Amino acid sequence: MRVTSIGCAALLLLAAAACGGRGDTGTGGTSGTGGGATAAAGQCQGQQTTGITDTSIKLGGIYPLSGPASAYGAIPKGIKAYFDYVNAEKGGIGGRKVEFVVRDDGYQPPKAVEEARRLVEQEQVFALFQTLGTPSTTATWDYANQRKVPQVFVATGASTWGTDTAHPWTIGWQPNYISEARVYAQYLKTDKPDAKVAVLYQNDDFGKDLLDGFKRAVEGSGVKVVAEQSYEVTDPSVDAQMRNLAESKADVLLNVTTPKFGSQALAADAKNTGWNPLHIVNNVAASITVLKPVGFQNVQGIVSASYYKDPTDPTWKDDAEMKLYHEKMKQYAPDADPAVPYHTFGWAVASSFHKAMEAAKCPTREGLRDSMRDLKGVKVDMLLPGVTLDTAAGDGFPIESLQLMTFKGERWELFGQVIDTRKEFGPLTG
Asked: Is the Cβ–Cβ distance between 81 and 333 less than 8 Å?
């Protein structure tokens, strides 16, 4: 079923008719507050309505507003600007004004668990919308599953969110790291078929997921991984690791890092005049905010991949969604620079939540859980043309398409075509 605004409105009207009343109590749920939309009859009966009423919906996000990954703290600003715009000018989502509560975990998994409990048990949110980071999401998804709380569109590309079947309440959003790695591998096999690759990676499930995916993707080819160096998120820098990698004389550097360490690796690469590899930086560290401190003159020709529109790319200057984004960011988040791609990411994922919530057959936690796993060709206007949201039973990866890009001048330039990794490389399985 392709989601349209008319179809979504109709679904919500039907759901509202079937789901009047208060309270909830599905297993692991708590009683709804503030006058709910509990299912009193029909297919929605007995489903959880904590955090949602006829006029409001409360969401909770967990981000590293402080600590080594604090650059990602820009994302909730874009999300909140989108929700403020929809609340003020569109009547909310299905007539419900969105309240978005943000908590800081400092990129520390134990703190993420603490904040998840606070959001669910004290704030009584309807859903956890965005938990940022593989470590934090890994630490919280058992809790979300036990409480039967949707953990929607987590901000991490770990492949487990799409292949695991034991946690139906958690789902990712961005392309998974294995698929991203496959795109880089295919690029090298075509353009540098005898490449010797050195890899810097974060020593956790995030870094290992992308590295392992890359190794599998180059098996049997002339592309070889000749050196690896890992770092911990508590490390002050990656200078030592970069010196070790430079000794390999590899002609490609695969940079699998979060923003702080991405900047450090790029800067170390620029200083090493005796080593000049093709530098591939993973998407999560490819923001302008990562590159600018290094100096644009020092990052010319680096390669990455993306799936949403770059607010600095003049390709989109007349794009209706990009114009709306710039206008509403200035109106609802005047202190946030709309040129920062992490704000654009936030806008895009909030728009995706809007589509998933509208498509829910019941305005309940169960309804959202089922909707986010039954998306069919859903268009989100901030995604690149040709990139849509698609999920199904056994396929929990909403976005599986990417396009390569290279840095020229003061911005990224897309090249090649959008690559649907499902079609090109086959589906991922657990």
From this structure: yes
Domain of 119, in residue numbers: 5-175+314-399
**CATH code where residue 224 lies:** 3.40.50.2300
Q: Are residues 65 and 31 both part of a single domain?
A: yes
pLDDT at 273: 82
Residue 28 has pLDDT above 90, yes or no: no
- Three state DSSP letters for the chain: CCCCHHHHHHHHHHHHHHCCCCCCCCCCCCCCCCCECCECCHHHECCCCCCEECCEEEEEEEECCCCCCHHHHHHHHHHHHHHHHHHHHCCCECCEEEEEEEEECCCCHHHHHHHHHHHHHHCCCCEEEEEECHHHHHHHHHHHHHHCCCEEEEECCCCHHHHCCCCCCEEECCCCHHHHHHHHHHHHHHHCCCCEEEEEEECCHHHHHHHHHHHHHHCCCCCEEEEEEEECCCCCCCHHHHHHHHCCCCCEEEEECCHHHHHHHHHHHHHCCCCCCEEEECHHHCCHHHHHHHCHHHCCCCEEEECECCCCCHHHCCCHHHHHHHHHHHHHCCCCCCCCHHHHHHHHHHHHHHHHHHCCCCCCHHHHHHHHCCCCCECCCCECCCCCECCECCECCCCCEEEEEEEECCEEEECCCCEEHHHHHCCCCC
Region 351-374: mean pLDDT is 97
User: Same structural domain for residues 197 and 161?
Assistant: no
**CA-based diameter of the chain, in Å?**
72
Count Cα atoms within 13 angstroms, Cβ side, for 309.
Answer: 26
- Whether residues 170 and 299 share a domain: the answer is no
Could you tell me if 215 and 296 lie in one domain? yes
Distance CA 406, CA 410 (A): 11
Q: Do residue 168 and residue 255 come from a single domain?
A: no
Instruction: Give a yes or no: residue 171 inside a domain.
Output: yes
Look at residue 419 and tell me if it is in a domain: yes
pTM over 0.90: no
